[in-house]
Amino acid sequence: MPELNAWAKNNRSMKTHNRRSFLRGLGLSGAALPFLAGLPGLRGKESAGPMQRLVIMFSPNGTLPNQYWPNPGENGLSLKPIMKPLEPFKDRLLTLKGVHNRIRGDGDNHMRGISCLLTAKELHRGNIQGGSHTPAGWASGISIDQEIRNHLQSQDSTRTRFGSLEFGVAVPNRADPWTRMSYAGSNKPLAPIDDPYRMLQKMYGRLKDRDSVVSILDDVSEDLKKVAGRLGQEDRSLLEEHLALVRQVEQDLKRAKDSSDNQHAEPELDPEIELVNDNTPQISRMQIDLLVNGFANDMMRVASLQFMRSVGQARMRWLDIEEGHHSLSHKPDKDAKAQQKLLKINTWFAGELAYLCKRLEETPEPGGDGNMLDHTTIVWLNELGKGNNHTLDNIPFTIIGGGLGFKMGRFLDMKGSPHNRLLLSLAHGFGHTIEKFGNPRLCGGGPLDLG
Amino acid sequence: MRQVDHRVTQAWVPFALAAVCLTNPAAAAETNAKTGESIYRRLCAECHGSQGQGVREEYKEPLVGDWALEKLTRFISRNMPEENAGLCVGEDANLVAKYIFNAFYSKRPPARKTLTRLTNRQYRESVADIFRKGPDEPGNREPGLKASYFNSKGMNKKDALKHKQVDQRIDFDFGAAAPIDGIKAEQFSIAWEGSLRTRETGFHEFRVTTPNGARLYVNVNLKDGDKNYRDDASKESQHALIDAWVSSGNKTRSETARIFLLGGRDYPIRLDYFKYKEKTGSIRLEWLPPRGAWSVPGAHDFSTHMPSRQLIIQTPFPPDDRSLGYERGSYISREWLEATTHAAVEVANQVDKGLGVLSGARAKDADKVERLKRFARSVLERAFRRPLDKEESKHYLDDRFKGAESPEVAVKRVVLLALKSPHFIYPDLLIQDKPDAHGIAARLALGLWDSIPDEQLLKAAIEGKPASRKEVAAQARRMLQDRRTRVKVQAFFHHWLDMDSEHDLLKDSRIYPEFGRESISDLRHSLNLFIDEVVWSASSDYRQLLLARHLPLNGTLARLYGKKVEGEGFQRVEFEQGRRAGLITHPYLLSTFSYPNNSSPIHRGVFLTRHLLGRSLKPPPEAVSFKENELDPSLTMREKVTLVTRERTCMRCHGTINSLGFSLEHYDALGRWRKLENKKPVNAASDYETEDGKMIRLRGARSLAEFAVNHEGAQKAFVRQFFHYMVKQPVDAYGEKALENLHRHFKKTNFNIISLTVEILCLSSMHGLKTTDQ
Fold this sequence. Notes:
- The complex is a heterodimer.
- By secondary structure, chain A is of the alpha/beta class.
- Chain A has helices at residues 2-10, 14-25, 65-68, 109-115, 144-153, 196-228, 233-263, 280-296, 325-329, 336-361, 419-429; strands at residues 53-58, 93-100, 123-128, 136-139, 163-169, 183-185, 188-189, 300-307, 376-381, 397-401, 410-418.
- Chain A has one domain (33-195, 275-442): 3-Layer(aba) Sandwich (Alkaline Phosphatase, subunit A).
- Chain A contains 11 helices and 11 strands.
- In chain A, strand 6 (183-185) and strand 7 form a beta hairpin.
- By secondary structure, chain B is of the alpha+beta class.
- Chain B folds into 5 domains: 25-105, Cytochrome Bc1 Complex, Chain D, domain 2 (Orthogonal Bundle), CATH 1.10.760.10; 116-132 and 314-427, no CATH class; 145-303, Jelly Rolls, CATH 2.60.120; 432-481 and 711-774, no CATH class; 517-709, no CATH class.
- The chains are: A alpha/beta, B alpha+beta.
């Protein structure tokens, strides 16, 4: 079988090649339309007010406070090393110190760190045991991203196909309070999708299936014609009927394909990335591209981007780090080598955030003014303030972008405010003026004044 | 139509002759040269049309029916012309009846075998078998599930395997204690695995209830080795149907999910469970099978062997045509085309996901492409039910692999093409006139399984077998042993007994508080058990279906029907002389054909007329609703029905319907025996007039059953309906004497259903062949 040998010869890495070919074969390859974010006219409706979007970006295991909090300067901020990649966005950035996760109760700090981060409410009792403290279950309330999503979905002018999409990067496939930050409600954790191909399938899957059908219909018609010719008149009419319907469907599908080829800007994904730890940097970029594409096509207005999980043990060999992240985060402050590595890790996360900002900034706001970053607020957060003492105080909150009326280019110390109040500020920014969120006893003073 | 408010779509005249208004009395005097035809022209044609085709505004139904000549003659002389009865009697009636009978009444259009596509059932079953890995009937099936009990330690849920056993069901309340000795009560874990056998096709809902952690997997390939035992098996782990791993809130939680499964197949099932410091431990697995009730699946639903995952289409299909009384793939609609297209895409995507397991080709294999190609070839050959010839090989296989971007894409395209191809969809396409061995094999597999030939059949066909009648019969007998034959035969009975229609069996709970969904589900199971027992016994005697005096009952049902059962499960319960007669008095059917508050002789009568005796009924000439509350409350049900249907136009059909329905009046709405109805003694006696006009005295259910088993019309009706369901073509298309011959065989073998099955398969699968020994 000569053509089979050709296969083998031409492909040093069969696996790699196949993934690419696979996607291309389904009409989704790099040869497909270039990544056109935000074609005007994609939106079916005009927004009532200016466009507003929200991204929650999570990275785990605490930060290095002395490498993170900026020095307040007279002329803008002076960023510390971890934040250096965000230098181009310095004026659109708001860093908040002194915001504490005050949720106590069951579960260790890692668990409450992530599962109460967006819910600001206690965990249920449960059967998941951390390294210390009592076992716990799921969060007992909705998370702020979902609260805002529901608010947007409740109105015609802001309703979108998905409302929100939950992206993950290297999130292990297990459901427990360490791996979930978004909740549709009490006991209703939402799983982030950490496979870009699966996310692509979710966003564009039907198109993909349609293309595979189109690819074989000609052959089916041929077959039907051929066999119909060999039948008597009475039986032939059934096949002719069948053939007519196949042609009808074929035309409908082709018409649909033509019109959507002109409309939809399917993202260009590098098709050869295996979902393994070492490919995390590529996977991260693919997910960010998809996220921006989803926004550009107004599939959703809320997104989360979750890197790993609380207590995540990612081995970031792409940064020349062999140890697991969580183990490193436990090393004492005086361990200079570990500090150096943690600096690299956290700076890498800031770099991914910067990429997201850049992608949004370089994409003109579809049908509106400015660029997409002007209308998107990104909140970067972490489940701990500091890794080696597991504190839930001084969670590193950084807000970038625009659209919610916050005054940017600042570093503020909120002096021990419960983080419930910050979450309230986000809701109010979207015009969702709820008075309490999460544990109502921690909402005193209302939303933080960030304007 | 006066009023369309008929709960019953009942009863119509097999035939009726309408009124003739004699506009020209002189014509009546012309009596010379009387023939049947001239009488017909003179007295009948005005309302019935020159060829009996019917006349709009007069009597529009064509004069076609199943009455014998004698009965037709009698009817004419008594009733015709309507409103002028008596004009056509004696020799005139004889002549005109004979003319009508021969000219059009008894003639049916000549039957012919038509090209049909796969029915929905055939499509789903075939797809499952195209992608089936290996046989799934292991020799040693042990009921129950394999259970492994572990001690756990901290976050290691399966620290040490302490004990293995077989559990009959998953329904445990451990309280605060350990499940077995030697395990700590505070934290432990258990894994159950094995196979689940479904009964009927449809959506199956599952429910896991626990205050602890649990994951349920249904129809997934489980991992080799200990990977199943790790709760963090990461992305390699299979998708759980129900993930209730995290206990949350210290309350007992119930989670449900549903999945479409084909009946009579084995699916891998696994439930992982652990307790960690919660105050109590308990776990229950329940299911809601199609047409069933929520219950804990028991030992007979499980077995300890681990079958492979089955590829089951989840896409819904529009219903098949049943206009001829059995499902046939006789029409192509846009909905059907779209459904099968979605189904093909669904299958292709599923195959793509599991390609490694299905094809045995791993990314590392040097011969991966060859393996994928071999797999693609096997898909095509199974779908087309024959090996590919050279040209087909090139077209369906080589060209796909050449043209595609990768062998994986090629496989996907081959799958799509195979399932959309006329060679798959029209199984009888090119062999209609003269089947070769592959054609015979294909027909056998469809006839007995509604599916594709198995490896043995394919292998035989390559050697040119089966070719002779003896070889075909031998194959059919072998195939009878396969579980799929039982499933199909059972599906026939569901069809015959109208168990596959949507009937609401629930009764008025004020009158029958003890009869709920569980009773209905149990009764259905009882009826299935009864049918299986009779059909698959050594004598396989059709007559037992109607004459048996016992019912399989469990404890709850036994109490409901005034009996006692010792021990667990369903057991044979004998009834008193004369009180039960097989299917006819099975409580499932009796309550299916009942009102919520009482028996319904009309529903029962229609069912018996059409299904048991195989007679045709036309829809009622005018809809009359049975408004019980407007009738004298002191009347019995029989009296009410008699009153409501007393009109002559009604009685043309209700004469038949009522007499049959009344014979079951000893059974209430639940099918329980009763002596009194509305405080009066039950009268179950009636006179039933047969097709050939004979009057039969029926004295109740038993006497009806005895009449039916000995009545050739009923026997033939069974053979005909069985043939149609199995073969999905009209029996008359297999020769003028086909039904006659099958019936003779049936009688000769003491009404052996299994033997009849083989006979039907020999006849239908060899059709078109001229063999010496046929």
